[in-house]
Amino acid sequence: MVLIKVNSSKVTYGEDIIRSEYSYESSQVQEGPDGSFTVTPYNVEMKVKTGAKVPKTGLMFVGWGGNNGTTFTGMCLANKNKLSWESKRGHHTADFLGSVSQIGTFPLGLNAAGEEVFVPVRHLLPLLDPTSMEIDGWDISSMNLADGMKRAGVFEWSLQEQLRPMMASLVPRKAVFFQDFVAANQADRVDNVIPGTKWEQLEQLRRDIRDFKAKKSLEKVIIMWVGNTERFAELAKGLNDTWANLEMAIKAGAHEISPSTLYAVAGILENCAFINGSPQNALVPGVLELAAEKKVFIAGDDLKTGQTKLKSVLMDFLVGAGLKPESVVSYNHLGNNDGKNLSAPQTFRSKEISKRGVIDDMVLSNKELFQSGLGGPKPDHLVVIKYVPYVGDSKRAMDEYTSAIAMGGLNTLVIHNTCEDSLLAAPIMLDLVVFMELFQRMQISVRDSAGISHHVEMEMGQLLGYWLKAPLSTMTNSLFRQRAGLENLMRAALSLPPSNNLFLVKGALQKEVMKNQTSVVTNKSEIISTNNALNKKIAGHVFATNNGVPAKKELYAA
Ligand code: NAD
């Protein structure tokens, strides 16, 4: 439900579309041969259109019967049915803790008293309601979701008892499975596989998507892989480097075409966004080409839940503070089926790669600390994962960060993080779906000097990177910068300037703004932006004006 209305001539709330005019400000940097920099600020006038109606949406999980799939489904059902339960810690009611879309807030501006106003993210723009979403999926195990939930051992028993009748009738569809891509120890759960050639299996996945859509009268389906981590597939010219080659390779039943790639292709061919929640390279170049051709959004890889999320905060803090991380050592042990599968070297390797890349852009961001960038000495970075069945889904992550500090000193941080893996993952999976669905309804365009409108591509890696360990294309892994990007895009859709955190217009000046404001706050749920003309006047007092540097339209041309 949208509770926030921006009162500005630059925003119009139509029945079907919210339109916003937005002035995007940035800087272009040129590096001279002597190491000097010339910076040119510019601004581009953009239009953002956001669909005002959320279509009836379904979600299909690959690996529905696993810990993440069952936990997600149980969480949504518990919230939909407003369940509550007792544990030895007391009374609990269903919630979505850990979800930015459901619980997060964004700062909106200052009120008349000069205090900052925070509002729920879900009140800014129309978002998918997780309790109205339809869920379906595939699994190599035919176990129903109630038994899967019991096997996962994530929820308190008294909650499981209430969820059981709702989940017992949910049975995963037959899946595509090639044993060679996961650990041998997964073989004993395989009893639900689509027969036939790779091409026939692909066709069946497409029929499944159409069947789900028709049965539930859905306007949109989003697909998410939360199946086991697979080993990396080989990337080879003529095999999966282009869509044409990938299509031929699937038809020929080529060995290196992984199940996750087949699900991605099936989804894209059915115009469904695909999110890869695991680390393997499901999204091979041929898939990227197909997605670009069909204009279908894809995102990956690997959910960013516990240890890596903290790493993307701590490395940002250390490097940002001018301290020099010299070694980062991460141990994990876990006892769920994910841990069991990761005990094979080839699947562990996929996870290790996605966990290790997260520090690279922090290293690149500070050449004072790391002169030769990624090519030179950078922090020692080790990731170890061990399978310890007894701890189940309650993953233990232990990290040691050793940094060089002033004048030859050392600072060592040691962190112990009990992750409760699937309970951290389910709200993140939800956010990925909710924001993916929102971005599918958004269109950004820029008009050039000849008056021709250009479509601006939205980078899912950048926009959804907050929830992904190894986003496909991203400028930064820094968690708070990723969150700021998300916030600012939502603000742009409402013609609100990015949060600048300067708080310059406060006190007497703030009172002046409020006095001259042309609009009035009519009720508590309606927050009014300050008058635009006045904004410009105030900005003129405080900032140097941009001396008419021409817009760099070519940067934004599609
Ligand atoms: P899980 O082993 O409990 O569930 C995976 C499910 O996928 C199983 O039910 C399995 O039968 C099924 N499966 C395997 N191959 C399949 C295929 N080809 N088609 C359909 N189903 C298939 O694991 P989980 O704990 O739910 O984690 C799922 C994935 O999410 C793993 O790859 C894990 O690395 C990744 N992940 C999890 C977390 C987290 O839980 N915090 C964080 C980051 C990434």
Could you explain how this protein is built, in words?
There is one protein chain. With 558 residues, the chain is an alpha/beta fold. It is built from 17 helices and 18 strands. The chain has helices at residues 67-80, 100-103, 145-152, 157-167, 198-215, 243-251, 259-269, 285-294, 307-320, 337-341, 345-356, 360-364, 421-440, 460-464, 479-492, 507-516, 532-542, and strands spanning 11-13, 17-31, 37-51, 57-62, 84-87, 90-93, 105-110, 116-120, 134-138, 220-225, 273-276, 298-300, 324-334, 380-387, 396-405, 409-418, 442-447, 453-456. The chain has a five-stranded antiparallel sheet. A five-stranded parallel sheet has the order 9-4-10-11-12, with helices on both faces. Strand 2 (17-31) and strand 3 form a beta hairpin. Helix 7 runs parallel beside helix 8. The protein is globular. It starts with 10 loop residues before the first strand and ends in a 16-residue tail after the last helix. It binds nicotinamide-adenine-dinucleotide.
Short description:
The chain has helices spanning 67-80, 100-103, 145-152, 157-167, 198-215, 243-251, 259-269, 285-294, 307-320, 337-341, 345-356, 360-364, 421-440, 460-464, 479-492, 507-516, 532-542; strands at 11-13, 17-31, 37-51, 57-62, 84-87, 90-93, 105-110, 116-120, 134-138, 220-225, 273-276, 298-300, 324-334, 380-387, 396-405, 409-418, 442-447, 453-456. By secondary structure, the chain is of the alpha/beta class. The chain is globular, with a radius of gyration of 25 Å.
